Amino acid sequence: MSAGLFWLGDRLVERDAAPIAGDDSAFAEGRGCYTSVRIEKGRPRFEARHLRRLARGAAALSLGRFDPECARRALRELPAAALPGGEGAVRLQLSRDGRGLRLVGVARGLGENPPRWSAITAPQRHAPPPVPGGHKLTSRLVLALAAESARAAGADEALLFDGEGRLVEASRSNVLWVDEDDRLLSPPLARGAVAGVALEVVRERVPIHFRDARLPTLRKARALFAVNSVRGARPIVRLDGAPVGEPSHPWAARLTDALARD
């Protein structure tokens, strides 16, 4: 992967030519939104959904007028230049500076991509987002610290709970679990989770029940999953070092099928 290329504004630029403006709202205020798009065989997956997410975030943060055509160009030109083989992800971020709305795109490879994940209970408590609505915001300190805790523990993901001990989301995923009645469940988005693109797709294609859950419920779940639009659905088979769920539960195949098409 060519790590020296970015998308800045409306064109490809070299890393050294992509300065951060001092008045950039994401840098100066934490006021920005972003989305991470899976690139598969050179093509962005769920493109229209990701662009709608950016438009909603830009409006909620009063960033200015969002041009989806510029983002579409970034999702084609940046992977073609920076992702040999056409596999990876592109992070598109919107913020604003003194000149108006600013679009930044960064391409990256997938890195390690295990089919089954382990998770920890994050030591951090999930805080309500500063802007409601499930937006993916650049002000994500708690999520970043939780992800760092997972890496330090040798785990793939960290589950975050609120001050009442209720599951909200994971550091980079929405969380689903299967109960004793074989129902698929997820925490209510009103708890403050990011409204993930993968979760949006899944809930349109299979029945999901939204319920609160605490750690004992997850430990007893028949299956536990992390879902996001870059990795898809990943069974979580270990939680805090102990086995959890059924690694080959039928819901794993159902979720994979639900996310197989745009």
Task: Give the termini distance in whole angstroms.
Answer: 25 Å
Structural class: alpha+beta
CATH superfamily descriptor of the largest domain: D-amino Acid Aminotransferase, subunit A, domain 2
Mean pLDDT: 94
Q: Classify the helix fraction into a percent range.
A: 25-40%
Tally of helical runs: 7
Overall radius of gyration: 18 Å
**Would you list the SSEs in sequence order as H and E?**
EEHEEHHEEEHEEEEHEHEEEH
Range of strand content: 25-35%
Task: Give an overview of the whole structure.
The chain has 262 residues and is an alpha+beta fold. The chain has 2 domains: 5-108, D-amino Acid Aminotransferase, Chain A, domain 1 (2-Layer Sandwich), CATH 3.30.470; 117-258, D-amino Acid Aminotransferase, Chain A, domain 2 (Alpha-Beta Barrel), CATH 3.20.10. Helices cover 26% and strands 31% of the residues. Strands 7, 8, 9, 10, 11, 12, 13, 14 and 15 form a 9-stranded mixed beta sheet that branches. Strands 2-1-6-5-3-4 form a 6-stranded antiparallel beta sheet. A hairpin with a 2-residue loop joins β14 (232-239) and β15 (242-243). It starts with a strand and ends with a helix.
Question: What labels would you give this structure?
Answer:
nine-stranded mixed sheet; 262 residues; 26% helix; 31% strand; D-amino Acid Aminotransferase, Chain A, domain 1; six-stranded antiparallel sheet; 2 domains; D-amino Acid Aminotransferase, Chain A, domain 2; alpha+beta
